[in-house]
Amino acid sequence: MNLHTPRPLATTSLATPIALQTPRLIEFGAGVAPTAGRWAHEHKLARILVVADAFNAKRVDALELNGEVAVFGEVTAEPDVPLLDAGLALARQVKPDLVIGFGGGSAMDLAKLIATLATSSQALQDVVGAEKVSARGSTLMQVPTTSGTGSEAGTRALLIDPATQNKLAVQSRHMLADIAIIDPALTLTLPPAITASTGVDAMAHCVEAFTNKRAHPLIDMYALEGIRLVGRYLARAVADGTDVEARAGLSLASLYGGFCLGPVNTAAGHAVAYPLGTRHHIAHGAANALIFPHTLAFNAPAVPDKTAAVLAALGCKSTSSADEVLVLAHRYCSDLGCEMRLSALNVAREDLPTMASEAHAIRRLLDNNPRDISREQILALYEGAY
């Protein structure tokens, strides 16, 4: 018997208890963005704070909001604690009835935290972790403009602590949106590179939940369909950004990925990708695309059937051979135009050991992985991706 070959992971029983929390209302489809203004008016929400990046701050009119509308338009790709502090300062001036996350995952995560902390006696350090938030002071609306994070459907927010260069995670049912408005037309402006990397991020959420120690048949349904949607539509959207049907397919995949995150969450793929963002400021989607083939292949011996199903859903050859998995998954991401070499992203080779230590410390994700992974094995993955 080879002691280094993991046994296939046991399948979770259908009878295993699980809770799936989703926004109270989900509006989905091309052209639904103006629902934001109508819904706010119907609910008599007149003081509104929109949390957005600089690009989306210029097109808030798409939401057709009325009343007193303030915009915090400083969101960056990898938000940190000082950025949250700036958003909270504006929120305490505005005193909004409604906070809207309008953008990608960074904007929506910050919106969750601003809606939660602006009127709270709790500080950020009091709520880091799971279910430590006591209440939320404002109504929360999420309007995604990318198809990747699924943050519109989730209860988790992430931001970087500059002091440690690690990501802080806050999870609470109080951060679940009252309404998510998902308009694929808002994603038509995404350039091919961002379309590809965010699409792979959505797919990675689904894959890591599907192959997870905590995987559950209830979530597997969303996860596998999310992977199929990416396999069917991502290349189309990269080739033609105006393809509304393809954009809608990716928006739905992202939403399904968001459904996966709450009850199951991600695993080694995201843990290994995080230092690329926190230490080297590589966009989250690009980091996940680069790492995805390596962790999928690493985990293949522990989840052979599910690995084969993932590849089949993406339109690749169905196999669980680790070597073949790496080649096929790498080719899939590369064909989309994703950068697949750490060296090309100006990551210094001497940083890899520190990155491996930081990734190995992210137990909240690595403990979900179907196969135990050591710091040395993470370092080997980085070396393979270099």
Briefly say what this structure is.
With 386 residues, the protein is of the alpha/beta class.
How are helices and strands ordered from N to C?
Answer: EHEHEHEHHEEEEEHHHHHHHHHH
Helical percentage: 40-55%
Specify Rg, calculated over alpha carbons: 20 Å
Strand content: 5-15%
Morphology call: globular
* CA distance, first residue to last residue: 33 Å
Number of E-state strands: 9
| Continuous helix count | 15
Largest sheet: 6 strands, parallel
Determine the CATH superfamily of the largest domain: Dehydroquinate synthase-like - alpha domain
Q: Which class best fits the helix and strand makeup?
A: alpha/beta
Spatial order of the strands in the main sheet? 1-9-6-4-2-3
CATH class bucket of the largest domain: Mainly Alpha
CATH topology of the largest domain: Dehydroquinate synthase-like, alpha domain
Give the count of structural domains.
Answer: 2
What do these coordinates show?
This protein is of the alpha/beta class. It folds into two domains: 31-187, Rossmann fold; 192-385, Dehydroquinate synthase-like - alpha domain (Dehydroquinate synthase-like, alpha domain), CATH 1.20.1090. Helices cover 47% and strands 13% of the residues. The chain is built from 15 helices and nine strands. The chain has a six-stranded parallel sheet, with helices on both faces. It has a three-stranded mixed sheet with strand order 5-8-7. Helix 6 (192-210) runs antiparallel to helix 7, helix 7 runs antiparallel to helix 8 and helix 10 runs antiparallel to helix 12 (322-335). The longest helix has 23 residues, at 217-239. The model has no long low-confidence stretch (mean pLDDT 95).
